[in-house]
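Mods, move this if it's the wrong board.
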Amino acid sequence: MHPNNSQNTIWFQLTALWAFVEATLGGVLHALHIPLTGLLVGGSAVAIISIMAHNNKNATQEILKATLIVILVKVTASPHSPPPAYIAVVFQGLIGVFIFKVLPVYNLATIVFAIIAMLESAMQKILVLTLIYGTSIFKAIDKTVSGLTKEFGLETNVSSWILGAYISLYVFWGMIIGARMGTLPKRMSRLNQNRNSLSGITTNELKPKTTSPKRKKPFWIIYSVTLFLMLSILYISDSDKSNVLAVFVRSITATLLIYLLVNPLFKWLLAKKVKDNKYSAAVNQIMLEFNQLKQEYLHCVQVAKKFHTPFLRYFIGIEYLIAFKVENRIN
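Not the wrong board. Structure tokens:
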């Protein structure tokens, strides 16, 4: 099936949904003040790939094709994304192809795939943090906490606990996603019945609050505040002030290298690929559907309003939208 074929194919609809998740869902969730958007966006991508594998006889070819198109859409619609965001997409696509090919049992494959994908997401963030600030930051956190707990006779490697808890959160979420995706094909009809029974609902209460319009905070403001906090910890915990200067120089250099050299070059190469690629028509068509996908997603979240935990509600909204796209299309 060529990407320029009918837009009513399940493959095209799921690819468009995956591209929407990668390029715009994070912004939608941020505007709605939803915490842990990274887990939701990454988990949603894993869910879509899982269903794509379940509904395609040529899953390997279709997932790889979708991965390329999603990357091309992402660089076009969301040019501010850093290189690690694209690495995550590539990893999800490749590991999805591998897992669903070597594990014939779908329910088991979804769990393994989700755990590995979310683990990579957590580790990638830690590696980027270490690249920018170095290992001195973790040592400084340990020393600071050790100084505070010294009078109680307690010694702890707090940075290891923090990193362990962070990774465990992603792995646990991966287990939940994998288990839910294993049962989603059987739940699609019921999800669509629920959605259709509430077809008259509106999405007004889901729109971002506009009482006090705020300007988007520039990256350098957020970065500067983060750098100041980390250097403060290092300054308090370490008498060797040259170490503070080393972390400062390292973080500035690494950040400038990533955002002023690597990122523009990476975007230029991908932008050139968009123009020359045979999938350019599919990329343009998918981007035209983003506004409709946004409205459909907000509608599905409203259908899932009985789930009072916002985090779970917004993920179940993705399940509703996947079910709608699959059940109402013909391969």
